[in-house]
């Protein structure tokens, strides 16, 4: 099951899932679309962690032993994850990726936005 507020991105999620031979129930904006959804055992947040109440709603949806993984690329969303980490524990990681790009007649590494990731198992 996936939640996405943007209709175009919802269609893309369904298209990509079908391309890999899997079925995904793609619903609207979280947490509004949680009401009639099955209770998840794992939640992945690719963004939106600064949306008021979203992290809490996701954690409330998980059963004990359920896992939440959230990613952030902005200072504001990193702050939200750092605050959640300080309250609830888990693991906090930061990933940095680079893309090889032409640099004159050579290739140089161009840094991409770092991704901060928080993962936690609900107690």
From TrEMBL:
Keywords: Cobalamin biosynthesis, Methyltransferase, S-adenosyl-L-methionine, Transferase. It comes from Mycobacterium tuberculosis. This is Precorrin-6y methyltransferase. Signal peptide: none annotated. Its EC number is 2.1.1.132. One of its GO terms (biological process) is cobalamin biosynthetic process. It is an enzyme of class 2 (transferase). It comes from the Bacteria. Pathway: Cofactor biosynthesis; adenosylcobalamin biosynthesis. GO terms for molecular function: precorrin-6Y C5,15-methyltransferase (decarboxylating) activity.
């Amino acid at each position: 099951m996936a939640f996405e507020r943007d209709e175009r991105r919802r269609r893309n999620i369904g298209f990509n899932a079908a391309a890999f031979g899997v079925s995904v129930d793609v619903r609207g904006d979280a947490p509004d679309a949680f009401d009639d959804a099955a209770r998840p055992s794992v939640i992945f947040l690719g963004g939106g962690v600064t949306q008021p109440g979203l992290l809490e709603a996701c954690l409330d949806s998980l059963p004990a032993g359920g896992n939440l993984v959230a990613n952030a690329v902005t200072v504001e969303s990193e702050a939200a994850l750092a605050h959640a980490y300080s309250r609830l524990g888990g693991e906090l990681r930061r990933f940095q990726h680079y893309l090889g790009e032409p640099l004159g007649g050579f290739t140089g590494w161009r840094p991409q936005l770092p991704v901060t990731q928080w993962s936690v198992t609900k107690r």
